[in-house]
Amino acid sequence: MNKVILMGRLTRDPEVRYTQTNNTLVASFTLAVNRRFVRQGEERQADFINIVAWSKTGEFVSKYFKKGQQVSIVGRIQTRTWDDDQGQKHYITEVVAEEAYFADSKRDGDTSGVENTFGETVTQSSEFQVNYSDDDLPF
Question: What residue segments make up the domains of the chain, in order of their start?
Fold first, then answer.
């Protein structure tokens, strides 16, 4: 099974392009995901994960996601390789987003009533809060 669930902040606005063959929308962005543990005396570390969203999910992301916004992505890991003009082989690992959600509290840009990638209406509430302890986690 190949399933990834991430929550983090966008490091920049999504970049949109279209495929040459069938003009399909592709949105790319990087998500800064904080590591769970912090070493004593050090700042919290983050991993910068490349995300690619295609078609309808890409449209949603490009329209509503902005730099600095906290979002949640559900998708799968994909690796690719290609050779550049000099014959150098390049490798990339990225997450292909299959679902995209808001994870921030409501801010100036009101996104209530926005539809998520499944066409469901999304509302945000600043009252929403997740309370858990390490004992609640299965790992």
Answer: 4-36+45-136
Report whether CATH 3.40.50.720 matches the domain 4-36+45-136: no
Quick one: pLDDT band at residue 114, thresholds 50, 70, 90?
A: low
Task: Return d(Cα 85, Cα 83) in angstroms, integer.
Answer: 7
Please answer whether residues 6 and 32 qualify as being in contact, where contact means their C-beta atoms are separated by less than 8 angstroms.
no
For residue range 35-93, list pLDDT tens digits in order: 988 888 888 899 999 999 999 999 999 999 999 999 999 999 999 999 999 999 999 99
Q: Cα(81)–Cα(60) distance, rounded to whole angstroms?
A: 27
Cα 31 from chain centroid? 5
Phi/psi of residue 61, nearest 5 degrees: -60, -45
Number of H helices and number of E strands within the chain?
Answer: 1, 8
